[in-house]
Design brief:
Oligomer: single chain
Strand order of the largest sheet: 1-2-4-5-6-3
Number of strands: 14
CATH topology of the largest domain: Thiol Ester Dehydrase, Chain A
Radius of gyration: 21 Å
CATH superfamily of the largest domain: Hotdog Thioesterase
Order of helices and strands: HEEHEEEEHEEHEEEEEE
Strand content: 35-45%
Mean pLDDT: 90
Length: 263
C-alpha cells in the first residue's frame, strides 16, 4: 500500500495538490493529527524534488484542520545540485492557513559513503573557559568567526563536545540570539572529528526550541553530540546553556559531501 492510498491526494496543477483527510486521522484535540499534516508536507516535497531524500522538517501548526479537503500549496525555494528546500502550506476550505512546513532534501549521490554509530550520554567535567585555548585556524585558509566568537572546547568524549563561545553584545533579553550562534558553531567538531578530512561537512539546517530567556552570560555553552552518521548523513543533538540555565535544545543535520579531487 502506498502513502497516497492511505491519504488520497493528487496533483492539481504546478504548485498545488489536494488531499481528502478523514476523521480517522483526528488527534486528541478534534482535528487532523499534526504528524499527518507534516507527513503530507514531506511527501509532497519528496515528489516535487524528484524523489530526493528528506533530511529536515520544520512544521508550524497554526490552527486545527478539521476533516475534509486540504489544499496543499508548495513552492520550491531552492533546487541545487546537492540540496532542495520546499515550502508547503496546508489550507482548509475556509481558505485559512493551517500548517506551514519547510522541508529540506538532499541528493543521495552527493553524499560520501561514511558511517559512524551514534552515542547518547552526557559530557562531564568541563574545564574553565580561561584554561582552554581558542580553536586554531585551519591550515590554508581563515575562518573569521573563530576570531570573532573565540570558541573553546571545555570537555569532550568519544562522540560529543562541550563548546563555549563568547557573547559579543550585552543587550539584556537576547539569550535566544546568542544560543543560535553557539548552537551552530558547536555542530562542526563532533562530525569533523569522525570525517577527518574525508569529506566537506556543511550543516544546512538548525532547529532550536528556546526554553527561557535568562540573564545573558559572557559565554554560551553548547553541548553537541553526534547521534548517527549513515551513508554520509550525520544527525546531531544540541543543548545550549547560559551558565547552569538551559536556554535551548535542538538538532542539526550535516551533509558529508564527497570532496572533488583536483587534477
Amino acid at each position: 500500500m502506498k502513502f497516497l492510498d492511505c491519504f488520497p491526494g493528487q496533483k492539481q496543477s504546478q504548485g498545488l495538490w489536494s488531499f481528502d483527510l478523514e476523521k480517522k486521522y483526528n488527534g486528541a484535540f478534534g482535528g487532523i493529527n499534526g504528524g499527518v499534516l507534516s507527513a503530507i508536507s514531506v511527501h509532497v516535497a519528496r515528489l516535487e524534488s524528484d524523489h530526493r531524500q528528506p533530511i529536515g522538517l520544520d512544521s508550524r501548526y497554526l490552527r486545527g484542520f478539521r476533516p475534509g479537503q486540504a489544499r496543499v500549496e508548495y513552492s520550491v525555494l531552492n533546487a541545487g545540485r546537492t540540496l532542495s528546500t520546499v515550502n508547503v502550506d496546508i489550507i482548509n476550505n475556509d481558505n485559512k492557513l493551517c500548517t506551514r512546513s519547510v522541508v529540506m532534501l538532499v541528493n543521495p549521490e552527493a553524499l560520501a559513503p561514511l558511517d559512524s554509530p551514534g552515542h547518547i550520554g552526557t559530557i562531564d567535567a568541563p574545564k574553565a573557559y580561561e584554561d582552554c585555548r581558542t580553536w586554531p585556524q585551519p591550515a590554508g585558509y581563515s575562518v573569521p568567526l573563530i576570531d570573532t566568537f573565540q570558541p573553546r572546547i571545555l570537555a569532550k568524549d568519544q562522540h560529543g563536545l562541550l563548546t563555549a563561545t563568547q557573547v559579543i553584545w550585552d543587550q539584556p533579553g537576547t539569550c535566544a540570539e546568542a544560543a543560535c550562534i553557539a548552537a551552530d558553531i558547536s555542530v562542526g567538531p563532533p562530525v569533523g572529528s569522525v570525517v577527518a578530512g574525508k569529506a566537506s561537512t556543511p550543516n544546512p539546517d538548525l532547529s532550536l526550541r528556546f526554553c527561557q530567556d535568562t540573564e545573558l552570560p559572557e559565554q554560551m555553552l553548547a553541548s553537541c553530540r553526534l547521534e548517527s552518521m549513515i551513508n554520509g548523513l550525520a544527525s546531531t543533538r544540541i543543548e545550549v546553556r547560559a551558565k547552569q540555565s538551559i536556554v535551548a535544545i535542538g538538532v542539526s543535520t550535516t551533509t558529508c559531501i564527497t570532496m572533488k579531487v583536483r587534477p
